[in-house]
Design a protein that fits this description.
Blueprint (H helix, E strand, L loop, with lengths): L10 H22 L5 H21 L3 H31 L1
Helix pairs in contact: 1-2, 2-3
């Protein structure tokens, strides 16, 4: 039986680690910034979810795959809402 420490660090794992870095970075940005840019926040979360999904399609973990689906959906919702708010601000000018 292979333990996580015995698993090879292949391309899919590296992609997943990059996705993890995106999501952690977005959370840190949300927590530490005085004012956030919703496009940067949600775009980084969506990128992270996409990268983790690629990794999970190779190294399947169904619970994590479902989580990334919801994470991506929430990020897309946030991007759409930010885009609509930006568009309505442009119309008011």
């Amino acid at each position: 039986m292979t333990t996580p420490l015995d698993a090879p660090l292949d391309w899919a794992s590296i992609v997943g680690l990059c996705g993890t870095a995106c999501i952690i970075g977005a959370y840190a940005y949300l927590t530490l910034a005085k004012q956030t840019n919703p496009f940067l926040l949600h775009g980084t979360n969506l990128t992270g979810a996409a990268l983790l999904t690629v990794s999970l399609l190779v190294h399947t973990n169904w619970a994590s795959l479902v989580l990334e689906g919801f994470w991506a959906a929430i990020a897309i919702f946030g991007l759409v809402r930010a885009w609509r708010a930006s568009a309505s601000e442009g119309e008011q000018r």
